[in-house]
Amino acid sequence: MKAKSPNSIDVYVGNRVRVRRKTLGMTQNGLAELLGITFQQIQKYEKGTNRIGASRLQRISEILRVPVGFFFENGGSGPIDGATNELNSFLSSKEGLALNKAFIAIEDPNIRQKLVALAKSLAVAGLPDSDSELQDSVVNS
């Protein structure tokens, strides 16, 4: 018998929980203790294997200091598309989280703009010359 695959919204919400938890430097154990559940249950929530009930999601939002709408695209109004999933995967990766934290720590807006320009130039430099359409989209984003 084939195992049921997780619902894409449950996976998305779980990823948002993981991203916020990691941004705050909180462990799965820490969140689990505050919720009175096991860290294995947090793992299942974050993978989307188990759905998070409304009251539990409300409590998680309080602990992670974000509104419930944070866990849904555009406050829950809008489809979850490929770009959203790609962004969410990046933000929940070790590198994405580190880059995000470092960028937020930069207070000077001019330095932030220079860092974005640097990242764009590095991205274009890594693309094949034949992909001018993609190069244009990176430069103009």
Automatic annotation (TrEMBL):
Gene3D superfamilies: lambda repressor-like DNA-binding domains. GO terms for molecular function: DNA binding. It comes from the Bacteria. InterPro entries: Cro/C1-type_HTH, Lambda_DNA-bd_dom_sf. CDD domains: HTH_XRE. PROSITE patterns: HTH_CROC1. This is Transcriptional regulator.
